[in-house]
Amino acid sequence: MIVLGIDTSCDDTSVGITDDFVVLANIISSQEELHAPWGGVVPNLAKRAHQKNFEVVYQQALATAKIKEEKIEVVAVTQGHGLAVALEVGIEKAKQLAKKLRLPLVAVHHSEGHFVANYARDLNNKSIQRDKDLNIDSTIFPALAVLIAGGQTQLIKVNRVGGYEIIGQTVDDAIGEAFDKSARVLGLGYPGGAALARAAIKGNDKAYSLPRPMSQIDNLDVSYAGLKTAFIRQVREVLGPESDSVTKSVESLAGHLTKKQITDLAAAFQAAAIDTLIIKIEKAIQKYGFKQIFFGGGVAVNQLLQSKMSEVTKKYQLETFFPTPDLCRDNAAMIAIAGSLRAKKGLVVSNFDQLDRQPQFSLSEYQ
Amino acid sequence: MAYNIPVLKKQSELFLSRSAQETIKFGQALALRFREDYGRRPVIFRLLGELGVGKTQLVKGLAAGLNIKDLITSPSYTLVNEYYFDLADLNDYQQLKDKKFISFIHIDAWRLTKPDTFKQIGWGKYLSQLAVIALEWPPQNLSLLPGKLDQAKIISIKLNYQNQTETREIFIETN
Fold first, then answer.
1. Interface membership of B23 toward A (CB under 8 Å)
2. What is the ipTM of this complex?
């Protein structure tokens, strides 16, 4: 089944085309360049850019997939969660295309997209998983999905494809947000998370000691705001009397740090952020006996996370799956894959006019 | 409910919070102080203060004071999070018999650098709905934004770090 997927949930405009699980095209027009001078995603730019980019990205997806638009059988679009003003652009485009091509329209939850991205296959119909052949029939349910990005941090018990239960989440900031904000404190720019991880490679994570918030609490929730605050306090401590918190703003601190202090602080932060998550993943394994863990979201590409997870994988004798980077981050091929699974179950939108963006789309309301 | 409601004596007040928990409790009490205004005019809590100082913690408190049970998480990525509360839950002041739902809007305006972006996230709509708005990283001058402010209750809350401690100074000013 040839499915066109559209995702405009935040700062990337993406169009993907899949044939069942085979990714024919996955075009992501990153707006990072556009946003860089503002130190963040500037939303009205995002909306205008989505409108401007969409046609280009769509044509590029058709060309990459080497298909004519008449071959598309289903249109799938992210309904939520995401940035309201950005989501509505994708939904509008999806409705227009579905009407024009007289096709069924499927509304997808962004989180389901991240989970099913793990099942993607390349043009040779080979699983994207390194050294493994993953497909839905070989999935051992319930499975654990760990979705970690700029806007989300969730541990999800996947009872089946389409049946999700959030068993742990952040009580304040998302993990990617904590990376980005800590990078801001270290003067590492935007997007800061990746830059912080790069800086951390050269640093000594033992140079400073940061807490693992909520690790003593027996639930599966995490708090990254707590870590962020502890990190800022640590940076001030490093600067000692140089840092007078009343007169010096948080964002001016980085200018007083040495290169070694920056890399050590980055390493200490990253170790704490990843540990905090690993502690809860282990608790989830112990509680539910998961045999398979699926990752998704931009933070899932983090190298420290992946190497720590290989230890967890050995310790509990389970399997861990990571999508390739372009399928980890926000992308539309994952939406197309979710769309094909839903279309096959007949879960299509019956009235296009009633389909509206859901910025805070709850997973439990999504069946 | 035996909250220690801060008494408004003058235009500007100073409080001290020694922990995130205290900041939440403080927000809870503060939300109750303006219960006569809810549903009658838009109420805007402007939250000023640096990264990590506890702005979102204070918003958690405001939401608790409004009897909102949802988990309040950071709006940094989504820009706006929408919640609802029932005015009848606080009705000892307004003596409502029926449910009356009011929007509680949590905004992180760090990335909203132009008035136009406020329009797009629905700022004018929230004001006309008489919503209660918690606004982190507010622009200097709210009156430059699209939407009617003349009836609005505006409470400015400034959180400051005290040197190298958990303690925060919280300044309150109302219009």
1. no
2. 0.85
